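dumping this here before i forget
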Amino acid sequence: MKELIRALLAVLIVSFVLIFIVFRLNSSQGYTSGNTLTIFNWGDYIDEELIKQFEDETGIKVIYETFDSNEAMLTKIEQGGTAYDIAVPSEYIIDKMIQEDLLLPIDHSKLPNFQYLDSRFLDLPFDHENKYSIPYFWGTVGILYNTKILGDRELTSWNDLWDPEFKNQILLVDSAREVLGMSLNSLGYSLNDKNKDHLQEAKEKIDALTPNIKAIVGDENRLLLQNEEAAIGLVWSGTAQEIMWENENVEYVIPEEGSNLWFDNMVIPKTAKNVEAAHQFINFMLDPEVAAQNTDYVGYSTPNKEALKFMDEEVVNDERFYPDEEMTSKLEVYENLGKRMLAHYNDLFLEFKMHTK
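structure:
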């Protein structure tokens, strides 16, 4: 018995020593709970020089982690394994996070730079009065096509994709909302349609697109389209801009029927350990010059109207990425469909993917 007790004491002593060593190492590098900010964001979705600038200006150390889908981000926050101080989800997930009581209210008195945001992107249905979220980037979903491969052919409509001329030439993103949304729009229906007959019609229509589909892919669609391994892609506007920087033969269009207007917003999860630093970082990112630098790096559209003054006029005046009010009126924000309807969308999309094999 005495030997067992001594063994247990030895284990406890070693454990405490290890904990102390880790604490001292973290402290020596500045990673203590009082001056550490843990951020959860999409991959390659911030200019890392700005993280360094924030650290230098505030003395706060940033721990930066990334996710590749809203659903993966939500699952990790729900599980609570890591106490993230800031996350950057999309609009329909923000609605869900609010409903599930996963977010802290934003203290607007701590965000003097909030004034620089364009009112068009505030007080939207997924978060009235921006009580829980602050706009980070926005954009659209559209068609990228290669003018060298397609010649004089100009694409203006979702329905153009069903042309037999484009056999084995189209890349789709691996996302139910985008692919079914494309089909719904082509039929004149809402991106948030919950009518199962309409959804079945949309699913059957994308089944008919199968001969034209080269692949259904994730992030690799950027490289494939950039290297001209496919002529056409269903893409987000920021991805389109990245490809266009690398390949002058491609063009991006928001289809005339309309499309998705999406938002990624900064939020503070309820499990945050450094709420004060979270507000400091959000306000820092809302500084017009900081927002302009971040926009130049990332390539998506900024909701910061003052930041536009620090950006290239050619970019700001490009209606493919900053559409006018007429086109904007045709764009829809994704709504939270609810668990059952979202599952139905995902089931239809899975059936479609199986049909393409």
